[in-house]
Specification:
Helix 1 (16-27) links the parallel strand 1 (2-7) and strand 2. The strands form three sheets. The chain has a six-stranded mixed sheet, sandwiched between helices. Helices cover 43% and strands 12% of the residues. It has 18 helices and 14 strands. The chain starts with a strand and ends with a helix. The protein folds into two domains: 2-140, Rossmann fold (3-Layer(aba) Sandwich), CATH 3.40.50.280; 169-482, pyruvate-formate lyase- activating enzyme. It is α/β, with parallel strands linked by helices.
């Protein structure tokens, strides 16, 4: 049985979930293939390969691309079984009624997908498979237990992506060492995820250190690698035995600079020392809101400005670069609140900051509240993978949305060059949004990323190609907004 995964590369990140699905399917004897939408014609791929199954993995922002394509595929190739997994169908299962998909997968999909292939191979119904939703069983959904021991899973099928897209040649590679997050940030789906899996196993799990080291070795031996990006929601919670073992073995066997994500209220000096010894170059800790009341009450991120500033200074002490995110355009906030976020990032001496515009994703607490208050109708066609789109909320004027767009680009510039703070925040953000601001943003971003955040040993020309690709995507969005 042949499976064709269709993937649209937009953000230079490897779809790890899709790679896990492919790996488990291959282990069971099925053949898997990839079609990358930006460089290949999906209809031609299907015509040439004649797959039995076409599969997608999608977040909310990118789902619309796959749904439109799937409509065409089902008309032209009605015999092909189509299925979508990932965050969007997991938290918006009504997608099964609002698309031409044959099925969707909610939650962890490795074994659910294999069970689906087994049923299709003998021409039996997939309606009774846990985690699989069809039009016949939407109201009878059952999910299987979570995979408790992550080491029992084979390594992700990185070859699916790295052998078939330019990502294989880029010397930065993403690795995930854990699953789950215990926190309740209202803009994130983790609370809804835990509800789906209530009494179905431990939500937060992690691979053993040996598994992680062997996985990185596997990648390092097959593709260019000079920088590792650990993309866990939270890489480390404390200076425990796992982190101590990791720091020693990573230093001995891998010895490459790496990037992690964690929280400002978790990071301690003992943790920083271990991370620095292992080779950590960059730590990302999201501020999310410079106003402490908004951060603690609306976003449920219980940390103080003092904590945020102190841990960033701690990283500076050990010469570890820092990266942060601050959400702007939150419901019932104003431009002054957004400027507070820029100022806190400047005070914290963050090396790079992103200022994404809030989008109300399905089944997140803040997303549901936004819809409940009438600030947004749940038309997920309006949502995107990039956060540098105009706010979809109706509680802001067009003038305010214009300011948010400018802050999304120029806020980062103010953080990198604080002496420009007054010029940007008192004058430039009030001008009509224009592509020059986007150009400045990407130029500064490329400079900071190459010198500080990710030292990949990629050539200037490779970095320039990424820069141009990003610009093209933003130019397209800019032109479409004008149209």
């Amino acid at each position: 049985m042949k499976v064709l995964f269709i993937f649209k590369s937009e953000n230079f990140l490897v779809p790890i979930g899709l790679c896990f699905i492919s790996s488990v399917a291959k282990k069971e004897g099925y053949s898997t293939y990839l079609c990358e939408m930006n460089s290949q014609n999906p209809l031609k791929c299907i015509s040439d390969l004649r797959p039995d199954v076409v599969a997608y993995s999608s977040s909310t922002g990118e789902a619309k691309h796959y749904i439109r394509l799937n409509q065409i595929i089902k008309k032209k190739f009605p015999e092909v079984f189509t299925i979508m997994g990932g965050p969007h169908p997991t938290f918006y299962p009504d997608l099964i009624y609002n698309s031409d998909l044959d099925a969707i997968c909610r939650g962890e999909g490795e074994y659910a997908f294999v069970d689906t292939l087994k049923m299709l191979a003998v021409q039996k119904s997939v309606d009774g498979i846990p985690n699989i939703v069809t039009r016949n069983n939407r109201d009878k959904l059952a999910v299987r237990n979570l995979v408790e021991d992550l080491d029992t899973l084979p390594f992700p099928d990185f070859s699916l992506i790295y052998d078939n897209t330019p990502l294989g040649n880029y010397p930065l590679k993403s690795i995930i060492t854990s699953r789950g997050c215990p926190y309740k940030c209202t803009y994130c789906f983790n609370s809804a995820w835990r509800e789906i899996y209530r009494n179905k196993g431990k939500a937060v799990r992690r691979n053993s250190v040996n598994y992680v080291i062997d996985e990185i070795k596997y990648v390092k031996n097959r593709w260019p690698l000079s920088f590792v990006k650990f993309y866990d929601d939270i890489f480390t919670y404390k200076a425990d035995e796992w982190l101590e073992e990791f720091s020693k073995k990573y230093k001995k066997h891998i010895n490459l600079p790496f990037f992690i994500l964690t929280r400002a209220d978790l990071l301690t000096e003992d943790m920083v020392k271990l991370l620095k010894f292992a080779g950590c170059r960059t730590i990302s800790m999201s501020i999310e809101a410079g106003n402490s009341k908004i951060r603690e009450n609306m976003l449920k991120r219980r940390m103080t400005n003092k904590q945020i500033i102190e841990v960033h200074m701690l990283c500076d002490k050990y010469k570890i670069y820092t990266f942060t995110n601050c959400i702007i355009g939150l419901p019932e906030t104003n431009v002054r609140n957004d400027i507070e976020s820029v100022d806190l990032a400047i005070t914290s001496k963050v090396d790079w900051a992103e200022f994404p515009i809030f989008h109300p994703y399905p089944k997140t607490e803040l997303g549901e509240l936004t819809i409940e208050k009438g600030y947004y109708k749940d038309n997920f066609e309006d949502l995107h993978t990039s956060y540098q789109y105009r706010s979809p909320l109706n509680c802001f004027t067009e003038k305010e949305k214009n300011i948010q767009m400018n802050l999304s680009s120029l806020g980062a510039v103010a953080v990198v060059f604080p002496f420009l703070r007054n010029l940007i925040l008192r004058f430039l953000i009030y001008l009509p949004h224009n592509f020059l601001f986007t150009l400045i943003y990407y130029f500064i971003k490329m400079r900071v990323f190459r010198k500080k955040i990710y030292v990949t040993k990629a050539s200037f020309w490779v970095s320039l190609k990424i820069f141009i690709k990003s610009l093209k995507q933003d130019w397209f969005r800019h032109e479409r907004r004008k149209g």
